[in-house]
Amino acid sequence: MSRVQAIEDQVRELSGPEVRELRAWLDEFEAQLFEDRIAADSKMRKFDSLIERALADERNGKTTYL
Question: Could you give the 3-state DSSP secondary structure of residue 9?
């Protein structure tokens, strides 16, 4: 049995409030993983070309004010 399957079996045994508590924790955990990945990518300058393109579009009047 995989670790995920074992966890799934344990989750099935949780009460409704426990599932909601787990879901809230997972949401926060996933959000932190996303933030960490964005920070790492930014530190590695992976967004520089996108930023430059956006700034060039702004300078050239190719953007729309929202």
Answer: helix
Burial 9-40 (b: 16+ CB within 10 A, else e): eeeeeeeeeeeeeeeeeeeeeeeeeeeeeeee
Tell me the pLDDT tens digit for each residue of 14-66: 999 999 999 999 999 999 999 999 999 999 999 999 999 999 999 999 999 88
- SS3 of 10-58: HHHCCCHHHHHHHHHHHHHHHHHHHHHHHHHHHHCCCCHHHHHHHHHHH
Between the CA of residue 2 and those of 30, 37, 46, what are the distances in Å? 21, 26, 35
